[in-house]
Structure to design on (339 residues):
C-alpha cells in the first residue's frame, strides 16, 4: 500500500532574514501564547522584533541558519528505508518555518496515499509542540481535501528504540572517563512555563518517564533531570540546566549532558549546549564537560519509529484505541497498555 508518514517538528530559520518571521510564527501560535488573536498577533510581532537580534546572534554561531530541515530529511529517508513492506514516503511538516505544514499536506495529497501516519518528532507530548502541530495538520489536511485513513502517534517517551539509541549515545560519550573525575549525568529537556504544566500538559511527566527508562537501562547512580532554553518573563519548570551545571562545578563533578527532548541537532544543542553551557561549565569549575549527540538517524531510534508506525497502522485493524492517560483522547494511541 501507499503509506505516507508525516514527520512534525518546529522548524528553524533558513537565513538571518528568516529569524524574525520565524519567531513571529512561533509566538503567534495560540498553543504558545494563550490569548485572543487580536491581542496575540500584535504581541507576537512585538516579541519577535525584540527577540530577533538575540536569536540572530545565536544562529550566527552556526552559519546564520538552523540545520533542522537537513537533519529531519535524513531521518525521513532512513524511515522510508526502514518500512520496505509498503510504498513508504515520509513528508516533513514544520510548525514555524519551511517546509510548512500546509506544504506537507499538499505533497501528501499529490501522493494519494492509502494510509497516513502522523508522527511527531517530539518524544514527549506537549500542547505547545505536538498538540499544536496536530491541530494545524487537521486544519490544512481538510483544506487539501485529504480523506485517506489517518492514524496518530501521540508520543513515545519510553519507546525501546529511542531509549536504546539515547543510552548507546550516552555510553559512547562517557567512554574513557578521566580517572580523577567523578561524573554526573544531566538529562536536559526543553523547558516549559509552569502554568502550561498547571493547565494539565503531560510533558513534564513524560520527560520523567524518559529519564526513568534511561536510568533503568544505564548503570549510573548520579543522574539529574534539568530544563533548558527558557525564554520570556514567566516562571518555567526547573531545575534549570545552567543552575545544574553550576552546581556540578561547585561540587567538582564532571558533566555528561544528554538532550532528551530533541531528536536532531539545532540551535538549542549546537549553540546552547555546545557553546554557551560548555563555556559556563569551564567558568563554573566543571573538570570535564561532554555533550551527548541527539539520536538523529541512529539505527535503534529509526527502528523504534518504524515499529511505532506499524503499530499505528495495525491499531485500525485490531481496534485498539486510546487509553485513559493518552493526551490524544480523540485519536487512536499506539501505546496500548501504557497510555
Ligand atoms: C514560550 C516559548 C517557547 C516554548 C513554550 C517552547 C517549547 C518547546 N520548543 C521545543 C523545541 C524547539 N524550540 C526551538 C526554538 C525556539 N523555541 C522558542 C520558544 C519556546 N519553545 C524560541 C524563541 C525558539 C527560537 C530560538 C531562540 O530564539 O532561542 C526549536 C528550533 C531550534 C532551531 O531550529 O534552531 C526547537 C526544535 C520543545 C521540544 C518545546 C517544548 C516541549
Ligand atoms: Fe522551543
Ligand atoms: Fe497516546
Amino acid at each position: 500500500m501507499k503509506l505516507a508518514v508525516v514527520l512534525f517538528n518546529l522548524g528553524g530559520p533558513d537565513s538571518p532574514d528568516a529569524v524574525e518571521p520565524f519567531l513571529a510564527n512561533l509566538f503567534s501560535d495560540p498553543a504558545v501564547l494563550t490569548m485572543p488573536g487580536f491581542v496575540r498577533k500584535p504581541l507576537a510581532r512585538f516579541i519577535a522584533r525584540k527577540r530577533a537580534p538575540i536569536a540572530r546572534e545565536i544562529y550566527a554561531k552556526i552559519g546564520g541558519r538552523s540545520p533542522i530541515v537537513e537533519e529531519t530529511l535524513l531521518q525521513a529517508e532512513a524511515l522510508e528505508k526502514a518500512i520496505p513492506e509498503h510504498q513508504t514516503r515520509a513528508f516533513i511538516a514544520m510548525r514555524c518555518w519551511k517546509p510548512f505544514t500546509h506544504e506537507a499536506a499538499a505533497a501528501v495529497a499529490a501522493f494519494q496515499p492509502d494510509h497516513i501516519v502522523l508522527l511527531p518528532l517530539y518524544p514527549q507530548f506537549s500542547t505547545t509542540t505536538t498538540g499544536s502541530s496536530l491541530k494545524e495538520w487537521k486544519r490544512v489536511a481538510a483544506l487539501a481535501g485529504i480523506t485517506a485513513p489517518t492514524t496518530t502517534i501521540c508520543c513515545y517517551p519510553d519507546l525501546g528504540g529511542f531509549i536504546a539509541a539515547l543510552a548507546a549515545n550516552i555510553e559512547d560519550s562517557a567512554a574513557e572517563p578521566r580517572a580523577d573525575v567523578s561524573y554526573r549525568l544531566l538529562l536536559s529537556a526543553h523547558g516549559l512555563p509552569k502554568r502550561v504544566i498547571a493547565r494539565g500538559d503531560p510533558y513534564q511527566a513524560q520527560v520523567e518517564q524518559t529519564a526513568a527508562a534511561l536510568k533503568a537501562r544505564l548503570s549510573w547512580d548520579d543522574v539529574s533531570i534539568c530544563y533548558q532554553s527558557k525564554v520570556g518573563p514567566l516562571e518555567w519548570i526547573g531545575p534549570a540546566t545552567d543552575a545544574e551545571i553550576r552546581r556540578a562545578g561547585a561540587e567538582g563533578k564532571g558533566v555528561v549532558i544528554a538532550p532528551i527532548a530533541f531528536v536532531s541537532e539545532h540551535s538549542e544543542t549546537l549553540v546552547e549546549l555546545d557553546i554557551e553551557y560548555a563555556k559556563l561549565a569551564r567558568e563554573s569549575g566543571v573538570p570535564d564537560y561532554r555533550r551527548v549527540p541527539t539520536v538523529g538517524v541512529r539505527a535503534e531510534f529509526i527502528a523504534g519509529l518504524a515499529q511505532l508506525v506499524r503499530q499505528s497502522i495495525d491499531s485500525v485493524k485490531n481496534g485498539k484505541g486510546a487509553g485513559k492517560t493518552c493526551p490524544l483522547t480523540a485519536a487512536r494511541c499506539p501505546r496500548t497498555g501504557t497510555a
Remarks:
- The domain at 160-291 is CATH 3.40.50.1400 (Rossmann fold).
- Residues 190, 229 surround fe (ii) ion (ligand 2) (CB under 6 Å).
- The two ends are 28 Å apart (CA to CA).
- The CA atoms of residues 25 and 45 lie 9 Å apart.
